[in-house]
Amino acid sequence: MPVNKIIFRLLPMAAIAGVFYFSSCWFMDPASELYRIKIDSVSAPSSVNYNGDTVIIKLWGKIGDDTCHHYSHFQAAQDSTGIELAVWGLFSPAYRRVCPDADIELAGKEYKLWPLNLGIYTITIRQPDGTVLKKFIEVF
Amino acid sequence: MNKLVITIAGLLLSLQVNAQVFKSLGFKGGITVTNFSEWNPSDSTINKFYTKAPESRILVNIALFAEGLSTKYFSTVGEIAYNPKGVSFSYPMLNGNGNVIGEESIDNRIGYISLMLCEKARVNWNKMNLYVFAGPRVDMQLNSNTDRDFDETYRKFNSMIFGATTGLGVEFYDRNFKIITEFQYEPDIAYTLDNSYGKVKKNTWLLRVGFGLNAGK
User: Fold this and answer.
1) A5 touches chain B (CB under 8 A)
2) Does A111 reach chain B within 8 Å, measured CB to CB?
3) How far apart (Å, rounded) are the C-alpha atoms in residues B53 and B40?
């Protein structure tokens, strides 16, 4: 059989196989999704000693309304004047798994940091809607 | 440079005076890979959180084409395509002690309608056409899907971007139809962003297969 005829017959089959391959992924495994958690309140000490004190930031906010939502990780950028922090959750619906209703909260989730300079240190919490929450710590 | 381009275009068109006006019509589809050749946003949030260079994403494109003004070796191809172009930005995932526990990435994408007009040169060999093509292109933004951290910068991207298209491929043809496989390179000539929000320029590569119906002689 000439090479061209073989190619003519194989290419449509490869295209159909490709469509099935990619579509099956979407049907079988609903995508997990990372999202920023909205922080309702933050607590941090008003002042800390530069030599040795660890700053513990505590965060409160709702992670989700069912057990398919949970805390994932922190995202942070720190410099000598402060830290910018975002908290990420993960929505992970597994195929054919039920997600029972539940009130999933951060419930004072802690983030520890060490200020890099003396003076006023700014904690900036980035919210999902682009707004920020700020706290100021005096480092002496 | 402009005179040279105009001269070559004029020469090629003059060769096509007695050409077959309409040759074929069809569709192509495949993958698009975009890379920022320049990425300098001025947004401090992006610069603080996303310190690594953006990475290419693989997305899917689809196009309709028409080929005409065909002579033995040359033809002109017009194409309209939906061509999404996107990159990923990675950042370190941290635990409660500030230690790195992994890396996560954020995907951004802009969907473009691409219009291009290419001159195609081909040689025939054993029921196949081997060809190269090149021509101007314009991308018009149709939609976008960007993360909040990038919204402000991406919103300032130009909605119309001029560029070039070049590539090579092979057509397997029968009397009534042809099957196409081709590689395409799309360098942008204009900047995607060039103002106080930063400077961004991109290049794109496409790998596509297609199907065309040939017009009768």
Assistant:
1) no
2) yes
3) 10
- Cβ contact B98–A111 (<8 Å): yes
- The strands making up A109-113's β-sheet, listed across from edge to edge, are A41-43, A55-60, A109-113
Write the pLDDT tens digit of every residue in B153-173. 999 999 999 999 999 999 998
pTM higher than 0.90:
no
Q: Is A4 on the interface with B (CB under 8 A)?
A: yes
User: Which of A13-25 are b and which e, b meaning 16 or more Cβ less than 10 Å from the residue's Cβ?
Assistant: eeeeeeeeeeeee
Nearest chain B Cα distance for residue A57, angstroms: 9
Please judge whether B102 and A15 are an interchain contact, meaning their C-beta atoms are less than 8 angstroms apart. Answer: no
Asked if residue B87 lies in contact with residue B54, where contact means CB atoms within 8 angstroms, the answer is yes
Distance CA(A111)–CA(A67), nearest Å, equals 23
Closest CA to B147 of B18, B4, B22, B50: B50
Interface ipTM: 0.79
How many other CB atoms are found less than 10 A from the CB of residue B52?
12
Size of interface A-B (CB pairs under 8 A): 60
